[in-house]
Design goal:
Helix content is 40%, strand content 15%. By secondary structure, the protein is of the alpha/beta class. The chain has a single domain, classed as Rossmann fold.
């Protein structure tokens, strides 16, 4: 059975941990060369690094330390990738943080930090990817594919985390704008909005009360796994995803349908 991403060159931001880690592993398993872009190599949930796991499985990857909130670092990330491989086929803008604060509790510094990583970082990744992709010859009628990570909390409210919810709503909008503006240049841009995904990261995402609320709200009889989002990303990154751009694919076990 042929692999879906054979010979594709992909960058995945925030790929050392969580959802980004799962996407990078799945891309490599499907034949892509993966650039793991993150501020640290170590996985927040522990265990082997993403790079080590891909190498052990016989895949192709390398790590680039990158702060996506800084344009110069994102510019260098894409430039190095193109110098090595001649093109960029897939850009996954996944890197994100949260503050865990509502409107009145959020400081200026917290707002700026979350927006800097989640929204400015996505803007940087999208802009630099489009700059490169419009120069490339198309493969299967596509010059390049961008996948942004939104959230169901960019569609409905994000309880007690105003900056995060606003940043994810912005991710969904940015996806649509890029898809429309660059369709004639054969650049595909889609968004994935996860529901509650249990990644094993410590801190607020593993709060027992939040997990129990998510279990009550999710019709499917389990919460999400990082692999659920990775499966969606593989599809959107592949040539199987035809005539799909500007879409926001919700992967939430039916939460928003309830």
């Amino acid at each position: 059975m042929s692999k879906l991403l054979t010979d594709k060159i992909a960058i995945v931001t925030g790929a050392s941990s969580g959802i980004g880690r799962a996407i990078a592993l799945s891309f490599a398993a499907e034949g892509a060369t993966v650039v793991i872009a993150d501020i640290v190599q170590e996985a927040l949930e522990g265990g082997e690094t993403t790079l080590a796991l891909i190498n052990l499985s016989g895949g192709h990857a390398y790590f680039e330390q990158t702060d996506v909130s800084q344009w110069d670092q994102v510019d260098a990330l894409v430039s190095k990738t193109v110098e090595r491989h001649g093109r960029l086929d897939i850009m996954v803008n996944n890197a994100a943080i949260f503050s865990g604060t509502g409107l009145l509790e959020t400081t200026d510094a917290q707002w700026a930090h979350v927006m800097g990583v989640n929204l400015t970082g996505m803007f940087n990744g999208c802009k630099r990817a489009v700059q490169q992709m419009i120069t490339q010859q198309p493969h299967s009628d596509v010059r390049g594919r961008i996948i942004n990570l939104g959230s169901q909390q960019g569609i409905v409210t994000s309880p007690h985390d105003t900056p995060y919810g606003v940043s994810k709503a912005g991710a969904i909008y940015l996806t649509k704008q890029i898809a429309v503006d660059y369709a004639e240049q054969l650049i595909v841009c889609n968004c994935i909005s996860p529901g509650k995904i249990v990644t094993g990261k410590p801190g607020l995402p593993m709060d027992p009360a939040l997990l129990e609320n998510a279990r009550r709200r999710t019709p499917w009889p389990r919460l999400g796994r990082p692999e659920d989002i990775a499966n969606a990303a593989v599809f959107l990154a592949s040539d199987r995803a035809t005539f799909i751009t500007g879409s926001n694919l919700v992967v939430d076990g039916g939460w928003l349908a309830r």
